[in-house]
Each structure stands twice: as structure tokens, then as C-alpha cells.
Fold:
Amino acid sequence: MSRSFNSESDCSPSQIRALEFFSGIGAFSQAVLKRKAAPTLQVLKAFDQNEHANRVFSANYGHTPCSVNLDSISAAQISKGLSASASLWWMSPPCTPYSRRGKRKDVEDPRAVSFLHLLDLLPQFLPSFLFIENVEGLENTRMEEHLFECLEKSRYSFEKVALCPSQFGVPMLRPRLFYMAWLQPACIKLPPLKAVPESERKLAAYLEPSEPVVLLGQEELARYGNVLNIVDPEQPEARAICFTSGYFRCRKAAGSLLGGREPVRFFSPREILNLLGFSKSFVLPADLSLNAAYRLVGNSVDVRSIEYLLSGLMPEGAFT
Structure:
């Protein structure tokens, strides 16, 4: 789906300054770090209220997100401390209001307020580029309809893209919707996705044999075994299903477990980060509890998908 207001375009911006809203552990900042080609991308500021997420972000990116309530953040708070305006906004708002596993209260869910509020503030800033990530359940909701109305009023061209790590050769199913919007004369042109041979999609390659493992007890296995997705990493067709922030705490539809020749165990937080495309240098603070680590990584975004979206701002063929 695409909507456009005029045909002028300049797809080679020299410098892009970004704001990362709902930053979490910084999947967008991670993608920016991993993309070293021109044009220059710089994350000026990030925003999140989760104390643990902000600690992780700070440990990896050298600055701490602003812990401001996005339900009521002011335009002045967004601009505070910035010497230049941001030309790109990244948003990954709460997905619970639209998740097919939830009550789907849509715009009436209190967790949708922050997203609605930022859309209200958008006309005061009008960044050249806007990216929004969420679950597939956002499609055909009142929130999506409101989003489109806001973009059209501000004269953005926009497009909706469905992406999954499996499209990049990763043995994990985590489908997400991404909304891309731009103001002319800027534009976003995504390159074709390259096919990845099945032979290269090996789940075992993402595992960390030296990592401490958390086993699933035999009693729990007997109780929940019929609803668990247990995969054998040695099987060539093995795929992990979408991890959630409830992984490790919830036994149903929260993510895959590893089985096969070994006792059934959970994926480690580091292994989930590997599947999401975070670099090996990305760290979780040593004193971060296991529960907090699982919540944070299970709630993050696929870095490869963000890299691919950013490639639409790059010269043709820059994404590899």
C-alpha cells in the first residue's frame, strides 16, 4: 500500500538525525550502528520509561534515554538539549492494544495513549522520515485508520511493509508491520529482498553452547508439553516462533524451547539477541536479573528488518 502527493524526489540525503521513541534496548540504535555506509545516521535522543531497558541502552550506546512519560510529553521536552532538529522519527509503541492474544481494545486501551499523543505532536515537528513498528494486529484497526488520517493531513507519502526475520534467512518466525512515511522531496525506496537458500537457515548456528542454560522441569514438561513449541536445533527445518516479553514466565505461546537429544531448555537471552540480529558486542549488564533480561529481549525488534528499512534511504544496492 502506498500513497503519494507529488512526484518530486531526492533519495540521497547527506545526513539524517533521528529520535528513537519507545527505545527499549535500542534495536533502532543497533541498526544505525551496524549500517556504516553514507548517508550519516545519528540518534540524537531516545525515550523510554523502563528503568532496566534504559540501563541496557546506556551500557551499549553511551547515552541514557529520557525517562519521560510519552502519554503527556511536551514538544519542548522532545526538543530539550538538541542543537539540531531531527529529520527521522522511529517509533515502536506498545502492541498489546492490537495483539491478537489480547483484548484488542484498540484506541480505547490506556497503552495506546502515548502513540496517539505523539501523532498529535507530529505536525509541530514534521520530520522528513517516520518509521513505526508494530504487530500484524494493528492492521485494519481504528488506530491504523487514525494514523493514516494524521499522515495525510500532514501531507506525508507512506507505505506499509510486512517483514519477518525468515525473509532474511533467520530461522525464526516473528512477523511485524512497519509503516514508512516521508515528506517530499525526501523518499524511501526499498531494494528487492534477496532470496536466502534453505541450506543457510540453521537454528544451531544462533546458539551459544558455552552459555548457562535454564532447563524446563519434568513436572512442567508433563503439564504443558502439549502446548509448548519444542524445536530440535539439529533439524534443518527447525524454526523458532515469536518470542514475547512473557517468555520464561508464561508457558503458552510465548516462544519456542529447545529439545532434541538434550533435555528441554529455554533459549538464553543471548541466543534470542542473536536471532534478532544484535551484534556480539551488545551487552546485558551483569547484575540484570534473568527475568528482566528475558522481558527486554522478548519485547525487542528484529534489527535486520530495521537495517533493511534504512537501506531505503541509502544508495541502491547498499543493503547486504
Summary: The longest helix spans residues 113-125. The domain at 198-298 is CATH 3.90.120.10 (DNA Methylase; Chain A, domain 2).
